[in-house]
Amino acid sequence: MTPSENGRATGTLTRRSFTCLMAFTLAAGLSVLSPVEASAQASATAQKIADHFSSVKTMMGEFVQFGPRGEQTGGKFFIDRPGKIRFNYEDPSPMRVIADGKSVVIGNRKLKTWDIYPLSKTPLNLLLGNKIDLSAKMVRNVKEEADLTTIVLGDRNMFGDSTITMMFDPKTYDLRQWTITDAQGKDTSVMIFNVKTGVPLDDKVFSIPYDEIRNRGSK
């Protein structure tokens, strides 16, 4: 199966709506827990949810991304554990994000530029692992509510102050949304829907054009 280049059209997100969304995200994700309390909570229901999510080896679906300045984009995503993900942004966005298990690249098809990072140095590494170990070292916060379980993960040794907040349906254990907060406190949220799991995905979906990246860097 190969990724579609045409995403579903989405509307424009108003700044007020975006502010409300971020307020909800932060309220859900930033409960005040000590590492011991977080670890105790994570050892039960939250760990079961994390185990279920990480047991899903492949998935694909649609997404809507909300950027730190209130911008909204959408498209299709593909995940293959461990370490592989691809975002195809819908037109007119020229962007592509690909992780092949080792590196993450952000490509601009219009400008023909690529930025490359080690996957292990980004919070996406936590999302794409074969296991999400909710140990005290990694868990920043856990909050369980009737309609939402929120898990905030980070590793200061690997990512500094960057974190990833994952929001799950407590009944189905399905992932609804994740938010990556960078070291400057800026949030990028991804909401997913129309998700299919256990789908066959061609390795070419996650192929990074290293030759093109090297050629651009040598100019």
UniProtKB/TrEMBL annotation:
Signal sequence annotation: 1-40
PROSITE patterns reported in the protein's UniProt record: TAT
Pfam families, per the entry: LolA
Family annotation (SUPFAM superfamilies): Prokaryotic lipoproteins and lipoprotein localization factors
Keyword vocabulary terms for this entry: Lipoprotein, Signal
Coiled coil: none
Superkingdom assignment: Bacteria
Protein name per the record: Outer membrane lipoprotein carrier protein LolA
Organism: Shinella kummerowiae
